[in-house]
UniProtKB/TrEMBL annotation:
Family matches, as PANTHER family: ATP-DEPENDENT RNA HELICASE, ATP-DEPENDENT RNA HELICASE DHX35-RELATED
Catalytic activity of the protein: ATP + H2O = ADP + phosphate + H(+)
Keyword tags: ATP-binding, Helicase, Hydrolase, Nucleotide-binding
Gene source species: Punica granatum
Protein's name according to its UniProt entry: RNA helicase
Domain Helicase C-terminal, first and last residues per copy: 264-438
Superkingdom of the organism of origin: Eukaryota
Every Helicase ATP-binding domain range: 59-224
Amino acid sequence: MAQFWKPGAEKPQLLDDEEGGVLFVFSSAFSSSSSGYGYASIEKQRQRLPVYKYRTAILYLVETHATTIIVGETGSGKTTQIPQYLKEAGWADGGLVIACTQPRRLAVQAVASRVAEEMGVKLGEEVGYTIRFEDVTDTDKTRIKFLTDGVLLREMMDDPLLTKYSVIMIDEAHERSISTDILLGLLKKIQKRRPELRLIIASATIEAKAMSAFFQTRRRRAVESVEPPLSMEPAILSVEGRGFNVQIHYVEEPVSDYVQAAISTVQLIHDKEPYGDILVFLTGQDDIDAAVKLINEEARNGGKNSSGLFALPLYSGLSRAEQELIFSPTPRGKRKVVVSTNIAETSLTLEGIVYVVDSGFSKQRFYNPITDIENLIVAPISKASARQRAGRAGRVRPGKCYRLYTEEYFLNEMSAEGIPEIQRSNLVSCVIQLKALGIDNILGFDWLASPSPEAMIRALEVLYSLGVLDDDAKLTSPVGFQVAEIPLDPMISKMILASNQLSCSEEVLTIAAVLSIQSIWFIERGIQKEMDEAKLRFAAAEGDHVTFLNVYKGFLRSGKSSKWCYKNYINYHSMKTVVEIREQLRRIAQRLGIVLKSCDRDMQAVRKAVTAGFFANACRIEPYSHNGMYKTVRTSQEVYIHPSSVLFRVNPKWVVYQSIVSTDRQYMRNVISIDPSSLTEVAPHFYRQQGPIF
DNA sequence: GAGCACTGC
């Protein structure tokens, strides 16, 4: 491990961290020159951040090491300060740019505007940001650029060595999103070609050792031609956070029902503890709605200990108004309980939380490459997640965290880190992106965590069947390159390409945009009947895809009205996103030479285009089936049409689906009826191999 | 008869 201290400075201490690894900590503040901006109060605030006393150390490490790993808890100020330190030290001189990536759009925007404010510059000039649909940068002026890691990956398609950047900081690396993992693998490759490029990997947890081992190049010797010599060995620096102390409580015996246990714990806190809001982590909408109802009923029925207690749900599917409720300050004499999914673990930060109740579970995605199905499964969280959850209690003052599992379980059974997303997902998009960047040997790629060979092979098979890869697993021309250019699931991209010859690109672009978001329907319990009736107003006999076209037309006709959406139980937010994605796709399609044409009422063409992308997901209803059982053509799996589909209970003989959700049954989502002859027509190579099926 | 969370030229 890298050992460094600045000559003449106090020698840093080596400390054992709690996982038994060695960390590098500086024991006293380093002197730091003022940056000279005329904002005294902001400058003072900056200096109060924990990261400030490491300023000189960070700059020295970045100068002398190709890769610097910074472990810093929330509140250390690393995200906003380090890019500024680098800029002040001259890393953006000569027209170069300092990049800092985030996994989420909101974080990119928030951090960029904060940094622009601190520097006293207009956002979009010296400090800018880029997220999908929004490029707030100026090619000539922007020196510090915040962006999502997905955008940086896309930028590599045009500039594989990312030559305009002098330093790239990958933030929140511990979250291990697919994009982060791919990016880190590629950046390691770039480093070999561009030794002058500096990487900073910022992570909240002590995964630093694994990360450091990954960036350890075989060539251990330093590059000595430069001064000071550049070490290829990663440096690790730990920066403390600024959270308050959180006292952890465990249950003595394992609980059997964590919803019930969470409710009792909330009541216990309300009964015994001083004021302060409570955040409860459960797994999904079902659990959450049930818990909220029970807590509020107890409070209303005048349970003597429950007065003043009120509970609110929090999950991604909530409307704007419901979300605002959660962020409004708690009235005096009241105690707010927010019952949330994982969304409150990383994406949203609630102020005023003093108590956290942690069920120890979350819903996680798992991919099975054999069946090619992604499942959502309630699974135990990792120690890292548990710490993150606990930390939510210490933002305003010292707090308490009640874990609904035993200490013994936490210490001995809970895994240190979660399984990285790349090992839990379908890899088609990831593989095509690597192929487009010229990485031909996917199996031999230098992964931070290697996906299973089965998953990689499955992805290669799917891409081969789509005609995106050839026999040598190289991108085909033009189809492969075109599909890679479109920022969507390759099956959807293939559907768009097919629409060109079928003269229905206008319709298919709309369908593609809708298929690439979660759902356009507004979801609320208790009003199912009204919602179903509203859906019937748009329902098309062909299936969900054509229904989406009807909704989109209606939305445009209403003048993109939010009222119209509300009246029709359609998610206004989703529709706005659909319009944006469609516009982006329209531009890309035109660049790819796709002629924008409408097929008017000829839905045959639309069905054929959908089939050209999703032929591998063809299903036939079981003969004499009275419960709507289908079998997939490829693997003969039992599947059913999802109750949210307009084809639910309609059960046409042949369908293709977009995806499968797996609960007690395997449900097909987004289903369209097809003519089986079109399968052999659009994918003869695929259906000839499968043997006689009709 | 039913939905963890993010994200992309």
